[in-house]
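Standup notes
- DV: blocked on the single-chain target, sequence here:
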Amino acid sequence: MSTPEPGWRASRRKRLEAAGIAAVGYPAINVIGCTWRWQVSGLEHFDGIFASGRFPVMAFWHGRILPALYYFRRRGIVVITSDNFDGEWMARIIHRFGYMTARGSTSRNAARAALRAKRFMEQGHPVGLTVDGPRGPARVAQPGAIWLAKVTGNPVLPFHLEAASHWTAPSWDSSQVPLPFSRVAVVVGEPLFVPHDADATALEAKRVELEAILAGLEESALNLLAV
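- DV (later): unblocked, structure below
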């Protein structure tokens, strides 16, 4: 028996609303994004993974989706997005920036999304996911990225973005929206490998390690902007 579609899909009004948000959101992000000035550190880790014949499991915090979306556009990255109404209009926007999507989340259809992401990696695509998404707690890493690294043999690639001038949304993730012409620091960490035979204890240790790495990258990004 097939899984019933989320209720919003049965509503023509909601489908049109999602299309409308995407139609406005894509050009708006594109216009503001082209004004941002990038300060980048560690991108060689991203390139090095490809040079080794692997593909990165790109891991970052939910509150930095907007600048990450623009900076890493058109690189063939598969993004895990929620299988709900918000995930729908977001997916429509990110498709226009050259991403592909695996639908699901930690709260709905997580296993299906993880398996789809695994298949995409087997086909030669990097995968990106917000490790504390889609609903938090903020800056608490969920195990998805670590699991995906274990089953595919690809490393987790942690990164953080920080804008010098920004508006912070009053949301659970304190989502950051860089202002026009802001400097935006992008700091990419070293690859984090997960052994294919890691047990539950080892996986939890890697999850905690990922949280610590992301905290350090945030500090590095702030220091980069202070120079």
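- Follow-up: The chain has one domain: 7-226.
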